[in-house]
Amino acid sequence: MSFRSLERYESQKAAYDNYKAWKLLSPDAKQALYDAIPGIATGRAKPVLSAGFIIPFNATGTIVTYIETKKIIDATQGSAVGAAVATALRTALSGQFFATATGTTPVIISSPRYKFAKLSFTRRNTPVARVSRITKRSYKKPTSDTISMPFGGSSMSEDFDVAVAEIKTKASGANAWANASAGEIKQTYKFTPEGI
């Protein structure tokens, strides 16, 4: 062991001792420490959701087929954590979901196992000072809000890749969301295809 390693051990010993003490705690005690983190219970984004309908990509036939979902972001978000992210995501997906099933005798399918295509918006905010519940050392960590919403075709014949391109490039779309990053605030997005 080198002298540098010995010196590093001395500087890290207090944090290591705190870590060992934390490992000996019961699961309930560890959970209590986690729950005591400022804002941990109220700082998570919980968007208001409502029921709606998605048209699957590359659907065939002349009768419009919809798949029902209860995970459409509601138009009214209030002032809850992540409300701005949810509103921006709903706006970006305008035209790719439907509040009602329209058309001549539309077919509505309820399929709990169906894996919708999804778009996620994430906003990573300015880092805030924290104290580790495990090592008791100070550090900075950014808070972040991530919200996802299912989407489908604007019509029965629309392809996933075409829809993604439109969502990215529209005025209030995904690219506009990412380009609004400023300073320490970073905004990103992620598309997930159907069935994954």
Quick summary:
The chain is 29% helix and 28% strand. By secondary structure, the protein is an alpha+beta fold. It has a 3-stranded mixed β-sheet.
What is the topology?
Layout: H1 3-23, H2 27-35, E1 49-54, E2 65-73, H3 83-92, E3 107-109, E4 117-131, E5 138-151, H4 160-169, H5 174-179, E6 186-192
Coarse shape: elongated
Largest sheet: 3 strands, mixed
What class do helices, strands and sheet pairing give? alpha+beta
Task: Give the helix proportion (percent range).
Answer: 25-40%
Number of strands: 6
Q: Could you tell me the radius of gyration in angstroms?
A: 23 Å
Q: Stretches where pLDDT falls below 50 for ≥5 residues?
A: none
- Average residue pLDDT: 89
Strand content: 25-35%
Tag the structure with descriptive keywords.
196 residues; alpha+beta; three-stranded mixed beta sheet; three-stranded antiparallel beta sheet; 5 helices; elongated
Structure, explained:
The chain is of the alpha+beta class and 196 residues long. Helices cover 29% and strands 28% of the residues. It contains five helices and six strands. The protein has helices at residues 3-23, 27-35, 83-92, 160-169, 174-179, and strands at residues 49-54, 65-73, 107-109, 117-131, 138-151, 186-192. Strands 1-2-3 form a three-stranded mixed β-sheet. Strands 5-4-6 form a three-stranded antiparallel β-sheet. The longest helix is centred in the N-terminal third of the chain and has 21 residues, at 3-23. The relative contact order is 0.18.
